[in-house]
Amino acid sequence: MKRSTNDTGLEGLRIAVTGGTSGLGLALVREWHRRRAAVAFIARGRENVERVAAELSGVAGIVGDVSVKEAIHPIALQVLGRLGGLDVLVNNASSLGPVPLRALADTDCEDLEAALATNLLGPFRLTKALLGALRASAVEARGGVVMNISSDAAVTPYPGWGAYGASKAALAHLSAIWNLELEGEGIRVLARDPGDMDTPLHALAVPGADRSTLLRPEASAREITRAILEAMPASAAAREEAA
Ligand SMILES: NC(=O)c1ccc[n+]([C@@H]2O[C@H](COP(=O)([O-])OP(=O)(O)OC[C@H]3O[C@@H](n4cnc5c(N)ncnc54)[C@H](OP(=O)(O)O)[C@@H]3O)[C@@H](O)[C@H]2O)c1
Q1: Which residue in 138, 164, 178, 239 is the catalytic one?
Q2: What domains can you pick out in the chain, each with its CATH number?
Q3: pLDDT at residue 234 above 90?
């Protein structure tokens, strides 16, 4: 069954995002809910998950930690159970590594491991766990898009951002390779930098930054959503027109 494309551009689209209780993830959940997508989000803090799910009727809040190997299949099963399939996965949850940010020589191996677990292994494992559903979505020409949220730190070597930057660079490269490998099946794997946004993560990384110079996460959420729609298999023009 193909979904309708003559409405908000997202109606009926089944989307899951990791880290939906703050910053960009929360803005994405609100944007998609407003545009009548079927939405599931994942975060660790139960209280915040319940608050967001209560605020947005019909949205599925899932408590889980994407950095923990054993948590991935329970998360994937809940996503599929709540949405009945999956058209788009957005790997957005992220760890800065050690805070305050510090030089690599002062970074513990455990802090690098923690950044890689959240920013690289989590997206890899969750995508693998949901690949069957994304393949089914691509076959039905409904979707089949993975959006990995990257950073300019993936390409620019900022001193002090070693653990985070290395994990984001690896995620971007993983995305590019996976995109080529899955091309023949109609699945797109993208990585996008959302820009410097006024979020708790940014405040933690750069305390005292001039917030008036930062993007609103809502603006980045609209751009990320546009990029997802552009990558969709069919009727992209119709969806864009509606959006
Ligand atoms: N803000 C910026 O300026 C900026 C710039 C470039 C790129 N980015 C990227 O944009 C994305 C969103 O960043 P943000 O600034 O919106 O971050 P944020 O405000 O800190 O929000 C992070 C979200 O991820 C969840 N989360 C963190 N670790 C998790 C884990 N292990 N498992 C599941 N959920 C987890 C958090 O909830 P819990 O803590 O409850 O789990 C929260 O909902 C990230 O990928 C970041 O690297 C941000």
Answers
A1: 164
A2: 14-242 (3.40.50.720)
A3: no
